[in-house]
Amino acid sequence: MVSNYFSDPRRLRRFQTGILSPYMDAFAETFSEKGYTRGVVREYLRDAHHFADYAAWLGKTDVSQLDHALAEDFLNNHLPDCSCERMNSGKYANATAAMEHLMNFLTTNGFIAEPEPKAPDIPKLISDVLTKYDEYLLRRKGLCAKTRSIHRVKASAFIEWLKDRHGRVDFSALDNDDILDYQKHVDGYGFTLDYKKTVTNCLRGFLRFLRWERILSKDFTPAVYPVIDWSLSTLPRYMPFEDVKTLLQAPDRRTSAGKRDMAMLILMAYLGLRACEIVNLHISDIDFVSGEILIRKTKTYQERKAPLTVEIAEIIIDYIKNGRGNAKYDELFISTYAPHAPMTAPSSLGTMIRKYFKETGLKVPKQGTHVLRHSLATHLINNGSTLKDIADLLGHKNIQTTTIYAKVQVERLKDVALPFPVIGGAAS
Question: Quick one: pLDDT at residue 88?
Fold first, then answer.
């Protein structure tokens, strides 16, 4: 299998020597199965052989002696000053990834032992609290994974602040001053109003949990002061729909990545799908006959159906036929890089859309995927769609959530504005 990637007899002979020589063909085959490019595999094989040479130099004679600690030593201590073959001023580009693949290969096949688990960054007591908190948020509050993750992160930040403040974490010693001072600490960073609301909501939720678990003997939630924010006081941040159309022209649909990105962008731009809903789409969720897309994993846990227009269907079909390679997954969107696994992180869509914002030079009010959702709703309401229709399309549980888009109908609002009062028949 190594011979599929190298033709130089001298290089092949070198691969036939050393601690890893009996395993190199099998190691190379793992990349072939997952669709890695020839150039990337060549680099990984070179790095693996380099690592074996380093181990031999240290007196290692058997593959069982190649552990994770030795791999880290190779990356951090040997490579920066390495001159085995050529002078090097740092890590080789693919060495870190190569070592990760090699260690996984050796561990999975039982050639080396599993690494010893690292000590947690926070005490086990705190880790257990956060684990119970996650279960509480799921079972008692019914929150989705993304929202639970936000709550855990904010709870961890509060715990770390307590540790820095007191030198330890002792919830039994918590008092109102701690709660108030933490909020002042957050205010001091100049975060946005929305971020401050998130912090206070998460803090209040974490304190309720601590009281529920009887970790706290007192309810401290009254000490969390509310962030003043008038309902519907702001306008949704959106792009003119002409700019949305410009954005949709950015992906290069001659490439696999361009076909995939175009499919994701049009689902956000024309159907208002959230990033988390897009990465959870399956091919089996799309009914090309009836013209519907079933949205299963939503923010509100309520399934809904979105219309599949001919234009959207043609773009998705082009991606399925010509942009997914030989992927056998039912998940619709696949990574364009080996090992070509299903996309799972909604944040990857944010990275993708920011790239196209930069390429097109569009001036956008907010860098992120949600701006397309706002833009669609704004476009629809300005063209006569009802709030009920928009709420159904976007999957809002409460139509009150959709009413904010009524404020973007500037021309209609002019029609209902009261005239300026006059005195004595003339303006004063």
Answer: 53
Reduce the DSSP state of residue 38 to 3 states and report it. Answer: helix
- Residue 113 domain-assigned (yes or no): no
Q: Is residue 422 part of a domain?
A: no
* Count of domains forming the chain: 3
SS3 state at 211: helix
- In Å, how far from its chain's centre is CA 139? 24
The Cα 297–Cα 359 span in angstroms is: 31
Residue 170 tokens read as 């002792």
Summary mean pLDDT of the chain: 84
Q: Are 307 and 389 within one domain?
A: yes
Residue 221 tokens read as 């939630």
What average pLDDT does this structure show over 6-26? Answer: 87
**What confidence category does residue 89 fall into, taking pLDDT thresholds of 50, 70 and 90?**
very low
For residue 69 the two structure tokens come to 């600690």
* Top-confidence residue, 202 or 142: 202
Domain containing 43 equals 2-108
Q: How far apart are the first and last CA of the chain?
A: 91
